[in-house]
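Q: Is it fine to ask for two folds in a single conversation?
A: Yes, each is treated on its own. Send the first.
Q: Here.
A: Result:
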Amino acid sequence: MKIIDFRFRPHTGAILDGIKNSTMFKAGCEASGFDKWQAQPLERIVANLEERGVTRCVITGRDCRTTYGFPDNNGSVLEFCRAYPDMFVGFWGIDPHKGMDAVREVENVVSEYGMKGIATDPYLARISPCEARYYPVYAKCCELGVPVFITMAPPPQVPGAVMACTDPRDVDVVARDFPELKIIMSHGGYPFVHEAIYACYRNKNVYMDISEYETAPMCETYISAMKSMIADKVLFASAHPFVEQGECLAHYAAMDLPEDVREKVMYKNACRVLGLSEE
């Protein structure tokens, strides 16, 4: 079975160092033993992906310089996509506090760098995804025909982050106001499981992944919904290297899913979001 991983970052040395030394994730990395990772060269990482049947990976950038004073990682997204354009799909991280500079940035990275989408982190921006500062960015994405990836679950021990900024009901508002915008909620809106499922179900333009929460309490509710209500709305995503991709694939292989639904989740739904052929 072909696989598209909708949330992946290569575990090169620079990426691992950037994550564990960041002002956002340093405490969480120290608590979780994130330093167990051994860095690998990019060519070895890509070879491993191919061995697993992974045909593409979406790499999302992050820009929260306004709130955390930490440099964005968009340069690495561009670097990976240029090195392996047939494997990596880039979503550029946007800081909504930049105002019109953020809007111009969206235009530039899509037209000049070939980015296929935009990534946002409301819990790091410390504002809701339906807050007015995001709306010019969404409008520009509609104009350019690119999707928006919204991180909708705050990891443990992120200073200043609150769950209120990751309520899927706010994505429901965005979907109403921008029906042309493809929206991907990452991390399943956890712990707002039912709200996330229903936001996907009732809005044609809303999708989600459940990365990092495949074995969390209430995960069985996601799996039940995949079989019926949102079979066409869930995208496989590993959140590698926070979760090792091979381990994540094993979790999905063990899920009680009909094979046609499994194929949609692992590959076909992502093809539709990215505008790719399923061949």
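Q: Second one now.
A: Result:
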Amino acid sequence: MALRSAPLLLLVLVAVALRESCFGASSHSLKYFFTSISEPSQGLLHFVSVGYVDDQLFSYYDSNSRKLQPRVSWVEKVEKEDPQYWDRNTQRARSIQETFRRNLETLRSRYNQSEGLHTLQWMYGCELQRDGSKGGFTQYGYDGRTFITFDTETLTWVAPDPQAQITQRKWDADPGWNHRRKAYLEEECIVWLEMFLSYGNETLLRTEPPVVTMSSRTEVEDGMETHVCRVHGFYPREIDASWTRDGEIWLQDTFHGFLTPNADRTFHYWISLQIDRKERGRYRCHVEHDGLQDPLDLELKEPTDSKSNLGLIIGCIAVLVLVCVIAGIAVLFKRRQNGYRAASRSNQAIEQPPPSPSGESQHEERGEERGSTFF
């Protein structure tokens, strides 16, 4: 059963990968994900690749359409500087698709597995941090587990099991390629990220300040107070929302909601806290965000109507959960109609990254991306 739902791993993989930068210092990221499936069934696809800038899906390829397609209007601007961009990267995606098919056969033999549903995944990309620092990453996964990861510090590949160590020895035997891999991830990839940000600046570089609201209730059982701090309608998604006690961050008796997107591409988030009512004056909801000139510190309010507040809180959470469930079902149903069955998380699908804006096809000609390399 786990393997039958493996294509859904792509959705999970992307979600986890994007969530990792929600609360960190990462300002912007360019990430590519791909997944290949050995024996798809029930309409599932052999191969899917996607590209993300921050939280926005900008490119998509699958084994049915066999064509790399833009997913946001701003990325179409790349054709003005490079008219062959989509055709060239379509060919690369097809090449990767074939390579992954053969790699799946190789891995099935190495692990002495019978025929059946197996998945090969890949993720790579780069991040531009708030402080100006840059970083890149790439790793592969097989059947939902890490297969091999590139260490940009040591310029070597890290493999967790003997089957992967065969690939590790093969790739580490070419130290020059490992140096070029690091250069691509930490330099050329950043150039593309900055270019994409310039194309999509109206949406990717905008800031929307959060609207912060507070609600509270008194627990009937023990008289303790529960306070909820909700943060609405902010962009970008990076936000620092926490409780403070006497000016210091307070983690005890606190709960955190999920950072989730709104239909207008903004985000919302909430945190809650349970305290003795006598201590109320010592606590604040502290919020920092790029859309705010100064951090916000909101005082806790005295509960006014315990029953109505409790119902409102439960009702709001129920509505949010229901909306997310309906939205998720709608997305999966639509993709199922289109024949989309992908898989995801930290090793995923991408069209092969394009050549550098200067016109040098380093990525293709130097073979710097091992997506088209055999295990």
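Q: Anything structural to flag on that second result?
A: Two points. Helices lie at 9-19, 78-81, 85-110, 162-172, 175-199, 201-204, 306-337, 362-365. The two ends are 27 Å apart (CA to CA).
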